[in-house]
Each structure stands twice: as C-alpha cells, then as structure tokens.
Amino acid sequence: xxxxxxxxxxxxxxxxxxxxxxxxxxxxxxxxxxxxxxxxxxxxxxxxxxxxxxxxxxxxxxxxxxxxxxxxxxxxxxxxxxxxxxxxxxxxxxxxxxxxxxxxxxxxxxxxxxxxxxxxxxxxxxxxxxxxxxxxxxxxxxxxxxxxxxxxxxxxxxxxxxxxxxxxxxxxxxxxxxxxxxxxxxxxxxxxxxxxxxxxxxx
Length: 203
What we know:
Elements: E1 9-10, E2 16-17, H1 19-34, H2 41-47, H3 52-55, H4 62-87, H5 91-108, H6 110-119, H7 125-149, H8 155-169, H9 172-175, H10 181-201
Antiparallel strand pairs: 1-2
Helix pairs in contact: 1-6, 4-5, 4-6, 4-7, 5-7, 5-10, 7-8, 8-10
C-alpha cells in the first residue's frame, strides 16, 4: 500500500526527510541512470510511494523538480565554500577545507554530478541562470583563496586551474568504485593539490 503522502521517511542516520526531499532523492537516482527524458513523473512518484497527481502537490512538473535539484546543490556548494573560507585560520587551511568539502560532495553525490553534466540544458532558463551564477560565485571562493596564496598569478589562470581541478574531482562517478572511499578521498586530495601546484608554478 502506498505510504501517506504527508508522512516523512526515515534517513540512514535516524532522522527524517520531508516528502519533498524524498522525491528529489528518488528523482536524482532515476535521472542519473536513465536520463531526464527517460523517466516519467509517475515513476518518480511510485519510487516514493505516492501517485503522480500527489507528486504535483510538491512540484509543478519534471522541469521544476530538476531545477530545484540543481539550484539546491549549487547553492549548498557555494554556501559551504563561503563557510569554510570564513572559518579557516589562513589561506592554506582554507584551500584544504575547500578540497575536502568538494571531494566529499563528489564521492557522496555522484548522481548529481551526472545529472548536472547531462541535464542542465533541460532546466528552465531562469533557474539555469541561477545555477550558473551560483557556480561562478563558488569558483570565485576558490580563486580568492588561491590569489591570497599566489598573488603573482593572474586570476584568469587561477580560475582556469580551478575549473580543471573540478573536472578531476567530478570524474568520480566513473572512477570511484574500486577503492575504499577513504583511500579515494586521499588520492583525490593529493592529485588535486599537485594539479594546483603545477598550475601556479609557472613551469
């Protein structure tokens, strides 16, 4: 029997997620495997035990669901970066915290990485602009820290290096299956640090 649409579901940590969060999580898993256009909205509802019409009480449609999914993760990344940079005692510590936070995201949210890479064009334009604005702000948190560490390096080079490191870290949906997560995190941290050092060395 389908669950009551107002009843939240338990999370692995013992807390409870709202129905809206449940729907977003189920949609992310389905979109990552079969693509945005390959998943009917009724199947998303079925995955969390609600009917298609009941799902419309939370989202106006698949496009709105996808938009909220990508805006939310972009917002969370940017807010996390700002928090880490503000709390760090020095730029070196700030960079290590930025690396650790992004690696944790990359290892824990591979479905969202796949969806962003493949489905951003399916997001309505106003939300797409919001996603891109938040992403630019996220990049600038990194560039500001790198500029404090390497003031002689032009910001465009630091920005390009940051995007390149994101490409490395966001490759985890294709590469993270064979290693223990802690080992993979350590490997990514070492590789990203080396890539940034090379980018600013001027060699």
